[in-house]
Write a structure and sequence with these properties.
This protein is mainly α. It is built from 19 helices and no strands. It has helices at about 1-10, 15-20, 25-35, 40-65, 70-75, 80-115, 125-140, 145-165, 170-180, 190-200, 205-215, 225-255, 265-270, 270-275, 275-310, 320-335, 345-370, 370-375, 380-415. Helix 4 crosses helix 11 and helix 4 crosses helix 19.
């Protein structure tokens, strides 16, 4: 038991992934899920968490064994010039451009959390302040410093959202049924919510972030076991945090006439039930979600771009810094400009994710089956079966996501 707790002290890269996927989009989607459908869609978040652990374990194992990121591994695996260029364009366009869109939402989410507590200060001011803090932290080039701050933010989110869920006195039977009896209301909104729950948790750019992060922390192949524990504990906790947001919204608002469309609104609506501390707790939670993701999104874009182009992935390298700086500045610029709802940009990012997720998952599985690079740590039968099963489900979800995206686009264009 003492060895187990000793290993827990080494938790880090997995917490980066948890901090990355628990962003404002996840908080808002979980809020809408609980308020609109009660505990019914908890199974989708459970599936998302398990799928994320499966893929991130593979990415982490790759990083520890090869001491390379996923981008570097793909560049070496696909040696045909045409395929290499195609893969590079796919990854850079989907992840770099997509992260610019998500970064806008991350900054806006962080400012939303602060504005819940301090409404007198204009949101655009907070956008610039948060952007400046994130810039200075990333510019330091210190992986250990970034890791410690993100681990702290994940702990803060855990305390905030788990405590809030307990205080709302949810229905335990409803929770168990929602987790283990998959049901889907036959509406576009329900499917869109499922797509959102999975799409904001099983995120392709986190595979690049994780593989590169573990190579920064662990240098010996024997550390694979520690990496697995880190992945399971951190991402499992991230999944629990997301579930508690669904549970809180379900317990407080499902079946009532109150319509909740975002997490900031839920913080205000919970005050009659939980008292004045509700806005403080939720404000801190939403701020932590937004700020942590505002650090990881630019960082993962830099890891992916540098890896696939063969650049140095050192956090202090000038080209590496240039990539994350562009993503961060675009996000801050759009947020500070008062972009109240960057729907079209976010929809593009979600569509890009829908396309690239199964593709990157397939690439990852191919790399993990390479005996030459992975040796005894290559995928076994169980890992491949689980990977293929999750890829199959994500393909179905991605197809459904693309149909919803096309229908929404037609509606916006009046077609």
């Amino acid at each position: 038991m003492s060895k187990f707790f000793e290993k827990l002290k080494n938790i880090g890269p997995g917490a980066l992934v948890a901090a990355a996927f628990i962003g404002p989009g996840t908080v808002t989607t979980c809020t809408v899920s609980g308020a609109s459908f009660g505990y019914t869609l908890l199974w989708a978040m459970l599936f998302s968490t398990i799928a994320t652990i499966i893929f991130q374990e593979m990415a982490g194992r790759l990083g520890v064994v090869t001491q390379e990121g996923l981008g570097e591994a793909l560049r070496k695996k696909f040696t045909n010039p045409a395929i290499k260029i195609l893969v590079a364009i796919l990854i850079i366009s989907a992840i770099f451009i997509g992260n610019c869109a998500y970064e806008t939402g991350n900054i806006m989410g962080g400012t939303m959390g602060i504005n819940i507590v301090f409404p007198s200060v204009p949101a655009r001011i907070w956008s610039i302040v948060l952007g400046a803090i994130a810039f200075l932290l990333l510019w330091s080039g210190s992986y250990k410093k970034i890791e410690k701050i993100l681990v702290t933010l994940v702990i803060v989110m855990s305390i905030v959202f788990i405590t809030t869920a307990i205080v709302t006195k949810p229905d335990l039977g409803g929770i168990i049924q929602g987790l283990f009896v998959p049901k889907t209301p036959d509406t576009d909104k329900a499917w869109l919510t499922i797509v959102g729950l999975i799409g904001t948790t099983v995120v392709p750019y986190n595979l690049f972030l994780h593989a590169s992060a573990v190579s920064q922390k662990w240098k010996n192949k024997e550390d694979v076991k520690t990496c697995r524990l880190d992945t399971a504990v951190s991402i499992g906790l991230g999944g629990i945090i997301s579930m508690t947001i669904i549970i809180t919204a379900a317990a407080a608002f499902y079946g009532t006439s109150t319509e909740i469309t975002n997490a900031g609104q839920m913080a205000t609506q919970l005050e009659p039930l939980l008292g004045s501390w509700a806005k403080w707790f939720f404000g801190i939670g939403i701020f932590s979600a937004g700020f942590s993701s505002s650090i990881t999104a630019p960082l993962s874009a830099a890891f992916a771009t540098a890896g696939i182009l063969g650049w140095n992935s050192d956090l202090k390298d000038k080209k590496f810094k240039a990539v994350w700086a562009i993503v961060l500045l675009i996000g801050v610029g759009l947020a500070a400009a008062g972009m109240s709802s960057p729907v079209q940009v976010i929809m593009f990012a979600q569509a890009a994710n829908a396309i690239i997720l199964p593709i990157i998952a397939i690439f990852l599985t191919i790399v993990l089956n390479d005996k030459k690079s992975m040796g005894e740590y290559k995928n076994g039968i169980l890992s491949n079966v689980l990977s293929i099963a999750v890829i199959a489900v994500t393909l179905v979800i991605s197809y459904r996501s693309m149909l919803l995206f096309v229908n929404q686009l037609k509606g916006m264009l009046g077609m």
